[in-house]
Write the structure tokens for this entry.
Amino acid sequence: MSIERIQEPASPSVPRPASDPLAAEVRRFRGRTPGSLDEWERARRFLPAGVCSNFRLMEPHPIFLRSARGSRVQDVDGNEYVDLGMAQSTLLAGHAHPAVLDAVRRQAENGTMTCYPNPRTADLAAIVCDRFRLDLVRFVNTGSEATQFALRVARGATGRDGILKFDACYHGGAPEFWLGKAETDLPPGAPEWMGQEMYSAGIPHAMVSKTFLADYNDLESVRAAFREHPREIAAVILEPISFNLGILLPREGFLQGLRDLCDAEGAVLIYDEVKMGCKLGLRGAGEYFGVPPDLVAMAKSIGGGFPIGLFGGRRDLMEGIETRNVKHVGTYAANMVGLAAAYATLTEVLTPKAYDRLFAVNQALADGYREIIARTGLEAHVVTAGASGSLFFRRAPVKSVADFKTTRMDKWPIFWLGMANRGILPQAHGPEDIWTVSVQHTDEDVEATLRAFREVAVLLA
């Protein structure tokens, strides 16, 4: 959300009209969160932008939280919120799940990290390999590590340097992923990174010289990339459901077409399930869609709120690590606390019974949003996938980056601030973000969210 759209005018001689809902919500937000503003100003003395991840920066200022339990969080001003952002959609277990905390406490009393193998490593690996249909797996700490090492395995196995990714799709902090298509027709309110060829300064162009771009849901653009770069592409990497522009569902035949192209071209198909992992059910996206990948990268939700990630897949690819042709190292990899948290999450929290309840709560939330949209005549629609959902300010379905650019992103500041002012964090704070329902969300949380949206939808319509 851009400061130009959210800040009230600097000049008192040009006030916003009293009927301007954005101005009213900004004033209300500032009045509710003076402590957060104080904390942000203090943090800016020591931290660039006052935060430790650019995604946490928002206008008019970030909310600083004091506690997080179950489905709710509390800020430093004492305001309580139903949290549907769930830490960038990572917490299917919810905040501070008792089973996860108990497992971590027990492990912490017996050590946190040794850099020696631990029996729990194989215990967790066996569960992961069975649940997600992987032959071999390695544990890491973050999603960025997971995608980076999956790519390294693919390059090592194929002897090729090139990768194919999809425009406007995110795969973590590795520099070769930070390439997009230059755009000039972006609407007001578009995410600041959209339209930039390089998403960040400080990345040499040489590091993205072997990154090639295609368009999500467009098989012909993939075929064109393979024709233009014959025998150069080691891997095609994608989220099977794109979670970086709201939720973009794959068109029928898209994933199978990618599978067939990779087989024909000798490229490795990598599913980035860092953000979507565990959200579609007990199994991974390969089984859900019936189109298996060669390698998978996962993180976030598998850790129940603690840092852990993994990459794995076909034995013939992963054995490149065992032969030491491909190097994977990490001091904190498979640390005992992360292993304990993930083991508890996958065995005690994300169970078949939990998924039944999880999906029912998410469906009730989505149906409620849709009913309010229809009743108010708001130009918007809702898309869901498993435990997550997204709201687009456009009536027609969004299937591509081009579709996403036609949504009314300028409505987002009113929506997000309006919901926050009524005790709801509906998701992270941009039009590209999604909501996630955890196993600890309740019917009461859904009703509180819909009660707030009934008021906000009137402002938006």
DSSP finds 16 helices and 14 strands in the chain.
